[in-house]
Amino acid sequence: MKAGAFRLAGAAAVALASVTLARADAPGTQYGYFNSSAQVIQDNFTKLLWERYPPAGTVTFDDALARCATLSIGGVGGTWRLPTYKELLTIVDEAPHTEYDDGALVSKAIDPNAFPGTQVTPADWWTSSPAAGAAGASVYAINFSTGLAFEYDVTTLGYARCVQYVGP
């Protein structure tokens, strides 16, 4: 297992052992079959069903929770929600790659085929996991440019991708 790096808002860096990061060049069997217009993608290993095309704009933490709770995608049943910290890390590429985005080279730590158009810079993606010792004012967020997780104040704006667990 790899140790995940964190940057905390404000200053100190903390390392957390035993965080497993998924690779964007995942094995061919990781994701279920999908075409480029599919609105969802299933991770066969974690049994998570992911929203592929979340809205482009940023939202508050409360708005992200509410959007996921009311999400309905193309007839897919089940309960959508904001992913936990560990769940969102499963789609982070542990070896970021560089690609052109709006005419500039951009580092991306997410599979562009499975999750096309994911905002990476500047882009912080909400998780539902409270930051340790934050007393409800902060949660963990993931940046898909660096693949790093950090503490994020719930009053700021971030991006949201919804998920649901689809069983054993």
Keywords, please?
10 strands, mainly beta, disordered N terminus, 31% strand, globular, three-stranded antiparallel β-sheet, 2 helices, five-stranded mixed β-sheet, 168 residues
Word description of this protein:
The chain is mainly beta and 168 residues long. It is 8% helix and 31% strand. It has 2 helices and 10 strands, in the order E-E-E-E-H-H-E-E-E-E-E-E. The chain has helices at 61-69, 85-89, and strands at 4-7, 13-16, 40-43, 48-51, 92-101, 104-110, 125-130, 138-142, 149-153, 163-165. The two termini are 23 Å apart. The model is unreliable at 1-24 (pLDDT under 50).
**Overall shape:** globular
Discrete helix count: 2
In helices, the fraction of residues equals under 10%
**Order of H and E elements:** EEEEHHEEEEEE
Q: What average pLDDT do the residues reach?
A: 80
Placed side by side, the strands forming the largest sheet appear as: 2-1-9-8-7
For this entry, what is the oligomeric state of its chains? single chain
Q: Sheet with the most strands?
A: 5 strands, mixed
Runs in which pLDDT lies below 50 for 5 or more consecutive residues are: 1-24
**What share of residues are in beta strands?**
25-35%
Q: How far is it from the N-terminal to the C-terminal residue, by CA?
A: 23 Å
Radius of gyration: 15 Å
**Strand segment tally:** 10
What structural class do helix, strand and pairing data support?
mainly beta
